[in-house]
Amino acid sequence: MAGDGSDQRALQYEQTLMYGRYTQELGVYAKEEAARLRESGQKRSISERSRTLDLLEYKGRCAKCRICTVRCQKFLISRVGEDWIFLILLGLVMALVSWVVDFCIAICLQAQKWMYGGLDSNVFLQYLAWVTYPVVLITFSAGFTQILAPQAVGSGIPEMKTILRGVVLKEYLTFKTFVAKVIGLTCALGSGMPLGKEGPFVHIASLCAALLSKFMSLFGGIYENESRNTEMLAAACAVGVGCCFAAPIGGVLFSIEVTSTFFAVRNYWRGFFAATFSAFIFRVLAVWNRDEETITALFKTRFRLDFPFDLQELPAFAVIGIASGFGGALFVYLNRLIVQFIRKQKTINKFLMKKRLLYPTLVTLLISTLTFPPGFGQFMAGKLTQGETLVTLLDNRTWAKQGIAEEFDYIGNSQAWKHPQVNIFVTLVIFIIMKFWMSALATTIPVPCGAFMPVFVIGAAFGRLVGECMAAWFPDGIHSDESIYPIVPGGYAVVGAAALSGAVTHTVSTAVIVFELTGQISHILPVMIAVILANAVAQSLQPSLYDSIIRIKKLPYLPELGWGHHEKYNIRVEDIMVRDVRYITLNCCYRDLHNVLISGQLKTLALVESAESMILLGSIERAQLQSLLSQQLSRSRRMDYIRERAAAEKKCLSDLSNSDSEDGHQRASQEVRFQISTEESTFSPTCPASQKPLKPALKRPSVVERPTKLPTSPQDHSGIALKNLFCSSPDVEALEKNNNMETSVSPEQRRPSKRVRISIVDDGDVEDDMTLREIAEWEERQLDEQVDFNNCKIDPAPFQLVERTSLHKTHTIFSLLGLDHAYVTSIGRLIGVVSLKELRKAIEGSVTVKGVKVRPPLASFRDSGTSSSETEATELHKLWDRHRSVSLPGEQPTSESDEKTQ
Amino acid sequence: MAGDGSDQRALQYEQTLMYGRYTQELGVYAKEEAARLRESGQKRSISERSRTLDLLEYKGRCAKCRICTVRCQKFLISRVGEDWIFLILLGLVMALVSWVVDFCIAICLQAQKWMYGGLDSNVFLQYLAWVTYPVVLITFSAGFTQILAPQAVGSGIPEMKTILRGVVLKEYLTFKTFVAKVIGLTCALGSGMPLGKEGPFVHIASLCAALLSKFMSLFGGIYENESRNTEMLAAACAVGVGCCFAAPIGGVLFSIEVTSTFFAVRNYWRGFFAATFSAFIFRVLAVWNRDEETITALFKTRFRLDFPFDLQELPAFAVIGIASGFGGALFVYLNRLIVQFIRKQKTINKFLMKKRLLYPTLVTLLISTLTFPPGFGQFMAGKLTQGETLVTLLDNRTWAKQGIAEEFDYIGNSQAWKHPQVNIFVTLVIFIIMKFWMSALATTIPVPCGAFMPVFVIGAAFGRLVGECMAAWFPDGIHSDESIYPIVPGGYAVVGAAALSGAVTHTVSTAVIVFELTGQISHILPVMIAVILANAVAQSLQPSLYDSIIRIKKLPYLPELGWGHHEKYNIRVEDIMVRDVRYITLNCCYRDLHNVLISGQLKTLALVESAESMILLGSIERAQLQSLLSQQLSRSRRMDYIRERAAAEKKCLSDLSNSDSEDGHQRASQEVRFQISTEESTFSPTCPASQKPLKPALKRPSVVERPTKLPTSPQDHSGIALKNLFCSSPDVEALEKNNNMETSVSPEQRRPSKRVRISIVDDGDVEDDMTLREIAEWEERQLDEQVDFNNCKIDPAPFQLVERTSLHKTHTIFSLLGLDHAYVTSIGRLIGVVSLKELRKAIEGSVTVKGVKVRPPLASFRDSGTSSSETEATELHKLWDRHRSVSLPGEQPTSESDEKTQ
């Protein structure tokens, strides 16, 4: 998988992710590659398994030791369960990774401080040290990531969301990406830029799960089950958040909210288990390293327990929530604006495309210049790292005591907030404004980075600001009774952090993360209220940051149905379906196939009984049909024909009487055998990796007959032949892709078909003496033959909808089952097709029903930024598709596959 | 709905819930009633809406005021969204209910204490007062509940789980149940028995949501959408837990874990919003009532923050977790054992059936006698209420200081734990053992009650016990450094409470509930570890308490697939499907229909093209077919026939030439009209409530023709007629039941068909002069006619599976889409059917594949208790079904429906 993608990677490198520049081909490309990847992956796992078996069976060197190991393993598996072992391993590895990354980041940040501190004699040298250090780290991170694996850029949550939706994104779960992400992230965070660790950790955990899954599949068992892998990926996302913040509960919930539409409750369990274990190990490592005395929260607070807040403070918390909602929406908007601005400015774009590392360098230079502590940084606590900033913001002491702010002794890091000339309020305001755009800008740098933590810190600062204001206005607290409970601004900071990060990510579980991060749950109601209000505001204005990135990247994801917008219920499938379905009939000839492949664009084609009845029998993948067609016109078949012709001529000379009947007899006896073997044969031209030439020693002269010339008229024995023909296809079982057909066929059974082909090639002593005209004639004749569907996988039950199914229901079914398209039938007759594209359009409001444009009332602002590029993209998409479909199934691929089989 | 069920209620009263006595008919019965309820509900909502419209349009008394209200309402709805208003209302109402219930319970408990305290001169009087009070309350609660609504008995979570699975349980969501549940619960908890409030509150919140939904549907809008109602029920469950414990996050998570298999993340949002609002109001009420100074946790703890626990204490926490796992499994087992014991003992059973209130009385008497404080209660802190017990157990002081326990001053309620002669450890052990069986026994009393809180308290006591032991063993704490951190037994109590309640309910979210209840999250890792271990142990031994009750009650619910048991993947649908499918063909005659109905048992029947092709066209509900058949043999049709015969005789006398052609002409002109109206006509004999006789004034003489004699040979115009015939059926759209057909048909359109029937009856001046033999002959002739499917709803796309679909996938699809059954097809041809029953059997391990019984390794103990009764039940089930199907579609129901239409 890593090998055969190298040629595409160069292309992809151009297409993706360069300072947030994503073209829409990625989505299409990813989809195209999905099937291929899946197929080759399955094959590889089989071959690997058989290899392992060979190893176990035949190499008897340390057989006893081996047997013992296998027994132990079996015992463990049967007793403890494979899932458990997997989850424990995953938790352990991720905790170690998280701890090591944190450790390295801490060292990097310390080194910067040390350099900066050592050079305090000369401000210019100090500035140089302060600025050069992050620039070098970020540039290295950007360069390293782009060279090794450009997929590692960014947060990774949007991609995980898409992958968990059922779409396989190529190269997003490889070892290279893992290395690039971990090292890139460490360097990026070590630079001290306002970047986060959470998003990338979700991706890293998923990578880890995928790699671990592959590793454990070496030992056999259930690790090849693809549905299980998806479940494990969901658990891995929870682990990622869990070990990043030592927040197991919040991690599980955040990962659910961010990645899933429908969630299987049984996964919940797995997530909890793995995330708890991971968080535990992560914190235990800190204890063992003597950083902590015992296991406590990451940013522990010490707020008053007996009277955390007054009931009359709640309006202030609500204000924080609403303001954070607007702020969160603004952040998402700003982030998208920056990406789109750079993308649209052609001249900047071109220049930056050439000098790829210039953009990160410039952005880093700008940000680090502004935070330079003796410069502008003194007004915004520039010398504190992100973690230190957060600790000071969550402090339980009040900074400003109504004019007597000077009296307060700022101990430790809190001193950075104190400025001799400037008020603490001004410092906070400057910090919030500067960090806001800095974070939005910094997250567009093409390094592995998240936006959660920066946003969290900004929210905390905002909350602190409100809290300090409240403390200044009510120095003795609001409570009217005899007891005085002063206001705790740290509590406001907690509320603000949860609210702003909730608004940006559209999640409620940031509340839980906050509790776990601070180790205190006393502010539960203010936090919940603020988070909910922030979400309500932000959701009505902008998509979440992750959805925004999904749109920018044009990832194949289905948007959510707005809730409460019941006018959507009035749209039916018949309103949005494509009526002009490309289909093939059971008794069509190869010419029809050719025409359909040229004109169509869809990935799968419907198979109907006949053009009159239109009764839907199943669906066939485009690649299958292409291989059918190219096989029919392949050089080997032509050579076969030439050989046959020659043989016929010879036979015609020797004896004319009884050859035909015998030949038919012999062929019939081999039919059964071939019906088994050809189901698994891999003639597909899109799968060259698995077609290694076997040794001539394996050749068997008994099977020299043409394996593809099985009963060519399926109408005659449509009863039996059709039934054999319908084998379970992996694409239909999109929900659970454990391809059982593959597992039941041993490698022994698969060999004959390969041998056959090779023997044909080896026997190619007949010369290709056909002229071009003869070839064209021969091909014309071939195209008029009826298609033999025996060699291709047909999905016998593609998902069907009725024409009156509502949009809401369609959306639910598509999300639940992870569908890509569904056929619309009426009494078994095919009348249309709906794909994700149509559904997405309908949901995004570009379909009008009865003259009214269907769109949620508040979403007008929300869509204005993307709608123009959306239509543009669709047009491009169509053009591209047309180009592809025209070039593929004609003469050229035939010769291509010809060359490969030889 | 409330009216037509009164006859059945008497029956149900016998069948259900009497001291935990549930017969398996309930499940079947519930399913039968489901369709009926749904249908009548829809009709009622339509009629109600039309009534509201009438009110708004025609009654112009205070029109201005009305218009203003409507406008305000529309404004609110468009701006704020109906969902929001609904959720806020729900939260508000539930918070009030919860607070009022708590208030009443507190008063009840205070009254008991006051009585007990006032009579301290005489121990016997004291005993009488102590015992009589709870006996009276429980007996009243049991009696009241059983008279008003026996559905209110028990926790309600199992029923909600089943309802959210898609099965409509009759009478579980009515106003009567609401009243019975609230009052019954208040009395039951006021008695001081070890009963809980959580489960019933989930039910009460759902009841509240259902009633509110009905109420708001008076104002029109989306409140009739059934999928929305299900979503709101899911949110309501969260509200129930949230306002019971003031735990919004834990409430949402617990309700998800307990009720859902697949969870839509968009519901998550709703749940959070409503639960937070509800919890907020609930706690604000306490502040306003001066119970609390500000909003804090319900059972606030004050543990040390800086060093909550040592790393070396973790093994002790793990031990609590594992022991709680065994304890939880034992509790579920004990609870089931008690129910089954009483059910099996025929003599006890008969006696208790007669004296229904005896069982609650006896149990209460036993328990309250044992807790009598001067008696045995002194060894188990008997005089404390459940809440007080919990507060003392979560105390942050250590009770036993290594032998010097006497020195500790037990202030307040903690004094109850102190006994002059007996050690504190003995007291705790006695408390745990006694409360354990008492709680298991008490939850079988037929009153509204839950088991969560008692289990929670027992868990806390167990944790306390371990904590006190640890404190006694390590008086200066474990930590080896200079600083001394003594062990906090209260923290152990928190861990124990979470672990045991998690084990009994099979949930992880009890951890979150514990944090929210205590207001401290410092023990997050020990709690998580203990809860996960407890779950792991309990899940491998026993089903959860709710699943156990589902099994006992035989509710139609699909069990979970065990995780990690991948051998299940080897079962295919073809292994478990029923091959002998009852089907009807498109051109069958009524006799076939009759035979199929007599022999079959399934709720829906497959419609295939012909017995040869077996191509599946759709499915028809049994009730629809029964109505078709009974209609064909109905008295009115016979009267029609007599009238026609008489007319024909007359006409034959007057003129013989042109009568036939004209009749045909007239009939044809009415065809179109009837095709609309008859789709909605309700001839079903199972739906008598909606067939109220209309006034004769509505009679129209123009439509006296037979409405059912539409084109009887669908083969002739199978192209068009078949298409008209296929309308969207509500049953198939189990996922989302917004029946659009119903909403689009106005009452105006529905009237004609009713008028027709009545006009026939009114015109019944022809005498029924047929002899019995003539009738039989006539019926024989009728049975030979071809079935006209125009009058019945056909589901055109019943869910189909392929024969090689794996069990795992089937289970996923069934759970995701809430299916009841699915057809197994092969290339469009029907080859089998799988229903929930087969699936359940396969999962529970009664299907053997390749000689190996498929069953999770640890489940042998788990199933032993139920397997015998299971098979027995299935046999009974079959018998009962056969009896039913034989008696229904023959002569008797025909005459029955005859009588009703007259």
Task: Describe what you observe in this structure.
The structure is a homodimer. Chain A is mainly alpha-helical. Chain A contains 34 helices and ten strands. In chain A, the strands form three sheets. In chain A, strands 2-3-4-5 form a four-stranded mixed beta sheet. In chain A, α12 (about 315-345) runs parallel beside α21 (about 545-555) and α17 (about 450-475) packs antiparallel against α18. Mean pLDDT of chain A is about 70; it is low at about 1-30, about 45-60, about 400-410, about 660-765 and about 845-900. β1 of chain A pairs antiparallel with β1 (about 260-265) of chain B, so a sheet runs across the interface.
Alpha-beta content class of chain A: mainly alpha
Low-pLDDT regions of chain A: 1-31, 43-59, 402-408, 659-764, 846-902
Largest sheet of chain A: 4 strands, mixed
CA radius of gyration of chain A is 32 Å
In total, the number of strands of chain A is: 10
> Of all protein chain pairs, which has the greatest interface, and how many residues does each chain bring to it?
A-B, 103 and 103 residues
Q: Oligomeric state of the chains?
A: homodimer
End-to-end CA span of chain A: 23 Å
Instruction: Specify the number of helices of chain A.
Output: 34
Major beta sheet, strand line-up of chain A: 2-3-4-5
Mean of all residue-level pLDDT scores of chain A: 71
* Beta fraction of chain A: under 5%
Helical residue percent band of chain A: 55-70%
Shape of chain A: elongated
